[in-house]
Amino acid sequence: MKVLITGGVRSGKSFHAESLLLAEPTVTYVAPGPPADPVSDPEWAARVARHQSRRPAYWTTVETSDLGAAVRSADGAVLIDCLGTWVTSIIDELDGWDAVLEDWEPVLFERLDDALAAIAEHEGTVVAVTNEVGMSVVPEHRSGRVFRDLLGTVNQRVAEECDDVMLVVAGRVLRL
C-alpha cells in the first residue's frame, strides 16, 4: 500500500500518517529536511522533538535528502515526513533559490524519479506526508512561487504512484 497524505500546516497530517503505521512491526521514518538546530531555530527543534516523542521507540529515523536510497534500504513500512522539507532541502543543495530554474530543476526531477521508482518497488507500506501549498495567496517573492510550483508538481507525481491520497483539514481526513 502506498499512501500520500496532504494538508495545511498543523492540520494533523503527520499525526494521521503515524497512526496508519502503529501496527507495523518495523517502520523507517525518513526525515528528508535539514536537521533541527536548537540554537539557530529553537521553534523548529521543539516541533521536531514533539514529533519524535509521538513515535514508538522501535521506529528507526533516517535523516537524508536521498529519498530513493532511504526507501530502498528500509525494511518494513516507510514514513516520509515531509515532501515539502525534501523539496526545500534539494533546492538548498542545488543553490536554486536565486539561480535560473532551468539550470537545476532537471536534477530535482531526476531525484524525484529515483524516489518514485524506489517507492513503487518497495514491498512494504509507504506513507508520504506533504504540504498543500496551492490553495492560498500567490507568494510575493520568487522563492515562494518556485517552491509552491515545484511542490505542487512533486505532489502530483507522488499521488500518481499511490493507491490512496488523503487530505487532512482541521484533523479530519478526506479520501480523495
UniProtKB/TrEMBL annotation:
The keyword Cell inner membrane does not apply. It comes from Aeromicrobium ginsengisoli. This is Adenosylcobinamide kinase. Pfam families: CobU. GTP binds at residues 7-14, 31-33, 63, 81. The keyword GTP-binding applies. InterPro entries: CobU/CobP, P-loop_NTPase. Belongs to the CobU/CobP family. Pathway: Cofactor biosynthesis; adenosylcobalamin biosynthesis; adenosylcobalamin from cob(II)yrinate a,c-diamide: step 6/7; Cofactor biosynthesis; adenosylcobalamin biosynthesis; adenosylcobalamin from cob(II)yrinate a,c-diamide: step 5/7. Keywords: ATP-binding, Cobalamin biosynthesis, GTP-binding, Kinase, Nucleotide-binding, Nucleotidyltransferase, Transferase. The active site is at residue 51. GO terms for biological process: cobalamin biosynthetic process. Catalyzes ATP-dependent phosphorylation of adenosylcobinamide and addition of GMP to adenosylcobinamide phosphate. It catalyses: adenosylcob(III)inamide phosphate + GTP + H(+) = adenosylcob(III)inamide-GDP + diphosphate; adenosylcob(III)inamide + GTP = adenosylcob(III)inamide phosphate + GDP + H(+); adenosylcob(III)inamide + ATP = adenosylcob(III)inamide phosphate + ADP + H(+). Its EC number is 2.7.1.156, 2.7.7.62. It comes from the Bacteria. GO terms for molecular function: adenosylcobinamide kinase activity; ATP binding; cobinamide phosphate guanylyltransferase activity; GTP binding.
